[in-house]
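Our working data are protein records whose layout never changes between entries. An example says more than a description, so a record of this kind follows.
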Amino acid sequence: MDVVWIGAAAFLASGLTLYSGFGLGTLLLPVFAMFAPVEVAVASTAVVHGANSAFKALWVGRHADRDLVVRFGVPAVLGAFAGAAALGLLVGARPLAMYEIAGRPAQVTAVKLAVAILISLFAAFDLVPSLRALRFDRRSLAFGGALSGFFGGVSGHQGALRSAFLGKVGVSAEAFVGTNAVLAFAVDSARLSVYAASFLSGRGALTLGTGQAPAIVSGIAGALLGVAVSSRFLRKATMEGVRTLTGGLLLAVAAALGAGVI
């Protein structure tokens, strides 16, 4: 039964997040965590997320704006390394608040609050009519990439920040989805290589065993099917619709982050 639930959740989450460019991991991790220890759930989600990113890059990557990929992607990767280094310095920082919700611990930290506020501001540009017409100049792509990469390296929510910024540079819905797919694949490739090296060395906190194989395969199959089905409607999608979806998900992620739930 857990295999069915995971496959169904991956299908729905992948289909929905094809357009927003983020959120698969956020939606899928709690489902895996229902059936496995947290460290196993994190590793399993990372594998499904990586496979999904690779498939999306192959499936819709042809629509990517190459200029955006280079100008935004390179600073984002560099920023992610800087953010990961900063995370090491922040590990010992005391949380601002701690509590439990439905039996699960939640921690509110300064980093999570900062990222939540930043994401909320970006969401306003997608949802408030008077702000929708505003656009970012492409000359600011390097700054946006570095910013999303840095905070993504610290909090792990680079996808939300990336989508928030790319949605305001004046691209078509197809280019937005394709560019996000290529950038997500690049980031996931780097992240999974670090996980793999850590796992093979025996020093990693993330663990996987043969017992997780059926759930992971089910998650990958569901996620790939979700991309294939959702992409059939890509040509019918409008950037206004994508921005509304993105803005709504951004607010949800910001609220969860600020509350310390994720």
